[in-house]
Protein: Oxidoreductase
Organism: Acidocella aminolytica 101 = DSM 11237
Amino acid sequence: MNSRSLTPDFSVSSQIRPEDLLSLADKGFRSVICNRPDGEDNGQPSAAEIHAASKQAGLGFAHVPVTSRDVSPADARKMAEALASLPGPVFAYCRTGARSEALFEAARRLTAETPKTSNNARTYDVVIVGGGSAGIATAASMLKRRKGLSIAIIEPSDVHYYQPGWTLVGAGVFQPQVTCRPTAQVMPREVHWIKATVTSFAPDESRVILADGSDATYRVLVVAAGIRLAWEAIPGLTEALGHNGVTSNYRFDLAPYTNKLASELTSGRAIFTQPPMPIKCAGAPQKAMYLSCDRWLQAGRLKDISVEFNNAGAVLFGVAAYVPALMEYVKRYNIQLNFETKLVGVDGLARVARFEQKTPEGTKIIEREFDMLHAVPPQVAPDCIKTSKLAAASGFAAVNETTLQNPTYPNVFALGDGCAASNAKTAAAVRQQAPVVAVNALAQLEGKPLTAAYLGYGSCPLTVERGRIVLAEFSYGGKITPTFPTWILDGTKPTRAAWFLKDRVLPWVYWQDMLKGREWLAAPKALAATAQQKA
């Protein structure tokens, strides 16, 4: 088998055999197209044999046989239809790969010549905008409940990240590569992956418009577009990142630099910042600080390092029950807390950070020299949401906080960091939101009442030292909502059990449970029972 890639989503090869299909699936392919008529050569596996092996490997399959590279318009249309209906990336084969290549090019020309209007857009049962944790988990949960759904996920990125792991990359606990995988590898195989960027929504027409001018229509839309990190909102920050002691665990490529800076700093001033809410994982800015301080303490260097936490907010953590444990570590590490102090500028070459600080006398600008600056940018709704009819006043996707359904468009749901619900924006929240959206979106498709409720659960494993975590778990209104009884794990205290969850259990749960539609400790609550409890 000699294969070659024509695009990131399409490869061709010579004849394959049934035993090759599992290997193709492992490489991230999600569909196979056979372009050979049966019986061309002695010993040639039939299309039915390859189809059966494809099905066993979890791959889509189509048979578009041609006898020559001179492709007819009818053959091109059949190939285009197969490519449109199958989830990508696609692997096509013939005797040498030449016919598959010719068919692909003919299908691509045919598609390019077709006017891109809403009349030509394919309609899916479900379109999901965003192939991050929220989008993939929702698709997997829906497919677990109903096989055969036509679902499209619109996601431009080739790489999928486990972002909660970046805190531990910055502390030298994880290697960066364990926090990322190819998107093709984590995308549910039954889903049609549209590798594109969404520019706008037309909810009155049940359409999503893409950057290339094409669109996708839907019966139900799930908005899981995430949150945008507005690095550019702080003058000088973008240019300074990755140099002169300026870093952030909020970027995959910079978390290793955090580790380098913390391991090499022996004296001076280390500043850690937190922007105004909302942000994803509100505890992450101080997690980086605690883990760095613990490293310096263990190495005997902390006495020579002045540590500041400049927080645009007015409190250390939004749920008061967890603050006493955190304050013990603030005292242990001799951290200077500066509340209502917002980062507004960075001069990387001079190693100076500018802050806007509220005081009883009014707001003033202060400048602080630094040897290490861990900066967290302001975070805003994606442009495609905040400029659309789907947006709440905050710019994020409007929802009923319990059902996660849009209040104006009942066939639209939203979850994750791009959702306007008042829960904490964490991966733990997504893990509980995804099954709720899956159940309610299916009910909407069937014209039935919604039955699932999200109660606002979120979790923030606050890494206060290497080997111990304060496991904050809470729901709407800051209500403490522990998963385990206190005799197993008391989340208000630093424990090794919580570190074991963060270090060993939760990454496995993410890759093998959440993204595959398994809902361990995340089954949706019944909406009727929830209403009765509130009454």
Notes: The chain has a mean pLDDT of 94. Residues 141 and 510 are 13 Å apart (CA to CA). Residues 123-227+381-534 form a domain with the FAD/NAD(P)-binding domain fold (CATH 3.50.50.60). The chain has three domains: 3-113, 123-227+381-534, 231-379.
